[in-house]
Amino acid sequence: MEMEDQMESQKRRGMSKDELISEQTGSLGCVGWVIVILSGIFTVCLFPLTIWFCLKIVQEYERAVIFRLGRITDRRAKGPGIFFILPCTDSFVKVDLRTVSFDIPPQEILTKDSVTICVDGVVYFRVSDPIASVANVSNADFATRLLAQTTLRNVLGTKNLAEVLSDREGIAHSMQTNLDEATDNWGIKVERVEIKDVKLPIQLQRAMAAEAEAAREARAKVIAAEGEMNASRALKEASLVIAESPSALQLRYLQTLNTIAAEKNSTIIFPLPMDVLSHFMRK
């Protein structure tokens, strides 16, 4: 269903373009043809001089939309290279086909969860239909810039703060689709949209930092508690092993003394067994 809807919308846009161009490429009328013929005779009579006004050149990345007595002469733009016009009746508009990029100014937007953020982005677009970009809109570049700002506001206004921070690619793709559909009748192809930066209020940044710090401290306490639990279990197992052999405790004493002596301490604590102390206590 979605594919069919897209195909139907593309057909409707194509039909609207064809109808517009067909209306503008209609007959010039009797008076118009008379003027064109007179202009042609004038050009032939003054051929050595008028050749410089008749031949025009456009670059490889440009196209020329020719108007004859205010009407578009052909369904296709001229170029690249040399083309011929009548000096008195024809005029032309050059259209650049190269990809253009512009920055969307920072926009203060209220998200769906009532958080004010400042977002900016960048848009890459090019002219795909020179005739539509000249005939359907007065300034395609300026109109695309304004539409990008309003589209950014509309798309981000339906998102939560968490979605804005985590789903930038989805937001950029949604913006590109909306812009491409809106500017198709203007002969504009939006190639790419990117979200550059999302600026949060300072108070919100502090609150999020405090929340993240508290979460990290909670995880650290849980890890420390798990370590204490594992250590107590190991000590319990060690005590059971030492209890099975009384000489193991003496060996552990000697190991402790060796560790203390290796650290070059001035004070050495020498533990005495309780049975030795009990012998002196009886006396």
Can you put this structure into words, describing what you see?
The chain is α+β, with helices and mostly antiparallel strands and 283 residues long. The protein is built from 10 helices and 8 strands. The chain has helices at 2-24, 29-45, 47-54, 130-135, 140-156, 161-166, 168-182, 202-244, 246-262, 274-282; strands at residues 55-58, 62-68, 71-72, 81-84, 90-96, 100-110, 116-127, 188-199. The strands form 3 sheets. A 3-stranded antiparallel β-sheet has the order 3-2-5. It has a 3-stranded antiparallel β-sheet with strand order 6-7-8, with helices on one face. Strand 6 and strand 7 form a beta hairpin. The chain starts with a helix and ends with a helix.
Q: Characterize the largest beta sheet: strand count, sense, and whether it forms a barrel.
A: 3 strands, antiparallel
Tell me the strand percentage band: 15-25%
Cα-to-Cα separation, first versus last residue: 103 Å
Number of helices: 10
Shape: rod-shaped
Average pLDDT for all residues: 80
Give the % helix. Answer: 55-70%
Major β-sheet strand ordering: 3-2-5
